[in-house]
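Bug report (template v2)

What were you trying to do?
Predict the complex of my protein with D-glutamic acid.

What happened?
Run completed; filing so the output is reviewed.

Input:
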Amino acid sequence: MKRPIGVFDSGIGGITVLDSLIDVLPNEDFIYVGDTLNCPYGVKTPAEIEQLVTNVTKYLLSQNVKAIVIACNTATANSKHLKSITNIPIIGVIEPTARKALEVTKNNKITVLATQATVNSKAYYNLLTQNNAQVHQLGCPEFVELVESGEITSEKSYAVVDQVLESLKGKDFDTVILGCTHFKLLTNQVKNVFKSCEVVNSGMPTALELYSILQKENLLETSNTPGKVIINTTKDANKMKQIISSWFKKEYDGVYEIVI
Ligand code: DGL
């Protein structure tokens, strides 16, 4: 069905999810919104986050999207109210990511690295403990700052990640959830600290979830031509374009600044 899929995050983190969505659904059109003007979401109250999530969702609905992927854990944890705004499928990142972690863990001990708002929501904690996992959670707001400022390969990024994760060293979990979509860009830094752990991110689990929901709802695009990808930001399109250029290699129409 020739209608775009909306995807959003507080900034550039969700583009790591968009990357996987395009891998799995190359013929779909995507409209991405990074709400950079209001980034970070992770230090805001649930009421503030809900309002921002509503604003972005209404913008995407005005673009006639057939489904929305909330490519942000913090937004997903504060999105239950969206059911009263729209009937189209809304796919969050938390459930698919938690399921993946439960699949890969061998000792059922899982650490969740996320924003403080996601940690406080207990969204991961509840899902994982209901499935008998033992869970550590850690809020890592410093990681969002690193990624939004383009520090994804620097020595500083390794040092900051190492230091923030200090309190978890020596614990015997075998799986780490990158419970913030920005953190996928710091995978090497996290693996450098937890060398023997499986590191799970939201990209592929969410893309597979989207695929199966579109299929079930008969909403899959049937043409064989590559879809169109539009990236929007609520602040500084040039900066976003420059920061994603080193790692986002998919074809896209452009980065546009929008007011929502
Ligand atoms: N990328 C967002 C997430 O997955 C969080 C970043 C922020 O604090 O805005 O939770």
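What did the reviewer find?
Residues 9-11, 13, 39-42, 72-74, 115, 118, 144, 180-182 surround D-glutamic acid (CB under 6 Å). The two ends are 26 Å apart (CA to CA).
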